[in-house]
Design a protein that fits this description.
Helix content is 30%, strand content 23%. The longest helix has 12 residues, at 114-125. It has helices spanning 40-48, 63-67, 84-94, 114-125, 154-162, 168-172, 194-203; strands at residues 12-18, 34-35, 38-39, 54-59, 73-74, 99-104, 129-134, 141-150, 177-181. By secondary structure, it is of the alpha/beta class. The protein has one domain (9-203): Spore Coat Polysaccharide Biosynthesis Protein SpsA, Chain A (Alpha-Beta Complex). InterPro entries: MobA-like_NTP_Trfase, Molybde_CF_guanTrfase, Nucleotide-diphossugar_trans.
């Protein structure tokens, strides 16, 4: 029985999703909120960079400020902030590698082995997509924004969005997906409010 080919980091583009409205945080650009002296998005970029061959940021505003991090800025292909799936769409459309790894700008503690573990499970299963999961049974939580996708899934996503659909988990349900368990729930914490940001600042 032949070994399953590994998915190398050199075949993966990383994308930090910072294209939302920040509604739950009063409309601020969450990725630029400061944690321990650095913008949230910078924390994510620094953790994701060693895991992929190239990086970009999906942003629909504050683009000059995001560009200061030194990475390409890719904006949604559709107007009016249609949601995180639009960020995945722009990433898949722009990336020149066979795979795209994504993480949200408001999760500054993402694991340093996030992409490697997603890639390992995707290669083993032959899936179209892999995403992180934490917890067990009734506390099991999916994190589809922390995902690894094949570029070949773009036509499926284009059609899904063209039909007016927006829910990420509904699109993932149309693909061959593998859920990858991670033990540390805290690593996938989202900063959605000023209070959560303040608490994380105090914890570390």
């Amino acid at each position: 029985m032949s070994a399953v080919p590994a998915i190398a980091a050199s075949h993966i583009t990383g994308l930090v999703l910072a294209g939302g409205r920040g509604t739950r945080m009063g409309g601020v650009d969450k990725g630029l909120e400061i944690l321990h002296g650095k913008p949230l998005a910078q924390h994510v970029l620094e953790r994701l960079a060693p895991q992929v061959c190239t990086l970009a940021v999906n942003a629909n505003r504050s683009q000059l400020r995001y560009a200061a991090f030194g990475y390409p800025i890719w904006h949604d292909l559709a107007p009016d902030f249609p949601g995180p799936l639009a960020g995945l769409q722009c990433g898949l459309a722009h990336c020149t590698t066979p795979f795209l790894a994504t993480a949200p700008c408001d999760s500054p503690l993402i694991p340093y082995d996030l992409v490697a573990r997603l890639a390992e499970e995707m290669a083993a299963s032959g899936a179209d997509a892999a995403f992180a999961v934490t917890g067990a049974q009734d506390k099991r939580q999916r994190h589809p924004v922390c995902s690894l996708l094949r570029k070949s899934s773009l036509p499926s996503l284009d059609a899904f969005l063209a039909a007016g659909e927006r829910k990420m988990e509904l699109w993932f349900a149309t693909l061959r997906c593998v859920e990858v368990d991670f033990p540390d729930e805290r690593a996938f914490s989202n900063i959605n409010t000023g209070l959560q940001l303040q608490q994380l600042e105090q914890e570390q």
